[in-house]
Amino acid sequence: MSNFIGQGIAGKVYKGILADRQHVAIKHIIKDEQMETFVREVTSLSHIKHPNLVSLLGHYDGPNECFLVYELCYNGNLSEWLFGKSKYLSWRRRLEIALDCARGLLFLHSYPQGSIVHRDIKPANILLSASFEAKLSDFGLSKIISIGHSYASSEVRGTFGYVDPEYQKNRHVNSYGDVYSFGIVLLQLLSGQRVINLDLQNPMPLSKMAKNLTKGGNIKEFADPKMQGKFSMEAFELVLKLALVSIGLKQQRPSMEQVVVKLEEALDLSTRIESDHL
């Protein structure tokens, strides 16, 4: 079917057009007990609006199925752009995508009615608009908690490779779990690699590869070859350090506010260097 976009855990996603000619993405969900919880959580966050969050425009809740109607992001998801062979993202675009995501997360974490923890930050849940503005999607795992507090979860939820090891151990949901996941996404934006590189003779987590390189290796080797060396080394190192501190011990991780500041610094640095070369 030509309007089929893809399949998520919750159901299939299709392109659609509303009566006002607006193009949308429609998620079709066959209901069971687990899916009902998912739908309830998603719709409870439907009033939350931000340029870097995918907008839920409406929903239909039937007895056996339901439909969630989202704004359509024409350029698909970040995973397709990072790992697709024919896709290319410049260094500047990668920084802008990172900054968009960080601003979306900062908005969620500092929401006045209670900090919203996303719990499933990964490239597949970062959608790209026609102008490549990044938007966080899939709020099915989100939890609203009091700012500065944590919530004890009965089960570990999230995606393998992106879940905070501290959350896996103690099951305490807090905003620092999102910071960890975002740190892994930053490493992927820098390297263009998956969370575990299975091409190596000894498969190694991306986080370990990055940590090993900073202990005396050539940091430039970590850069995605698709960028062909066209990036500011100073800005690259700044983002790499930010990613590594984000996946470090919880008490040493930055807040999303600090992450935004650092990424703005890296973007300014790259912009200045670009203009110097003109």
From TrEMBL:
It is a single-pass membrane protein. Its EC number is 2.7.11.1. It is found in: Cell membrane. One of its GO terms (cellular component) is plasma membrane. It comes from the Eukaryota. PANTHER family: PROLINE-RICH RECEPTOR-LIKE PROTEIN KINASE PERK4, PROTEIN KINASE DOMAIN-CONTAINING PROTEIN. This is non-specific serine/threonine protein kinase. It comes from Nicotiana tabacum. The gene is LOC107817664.
